Amino acid sequence: AHIGFTVPYNMSEQPASSINAGFSPDGRAIGLQISGRRFDDLGVLQATHWYENARPALAKPNWEIPSNADSYGGDLA
Known about the structure:
Blueprint: H1 3-12, E1 16-23, E2 29-35, H2 41-54
Antiparallel strand pairs: 1-2
């Protein structure tokens, strides 16, 4: 996220998260920032989890897994 969008939340100590919300016609990612009341970290995480499961299929990233995925040291599938 760009610092201009995060400073207000950092300064006010409000929890915030960002998640992919879709793509522009030319393929660039569009983000959704979810913020909550101060100290409501759990509420922000729950809202983010809900959106992650409820968002339209076209908003879900469908990135290809590189052929050398095992070199990353983790299971990417």
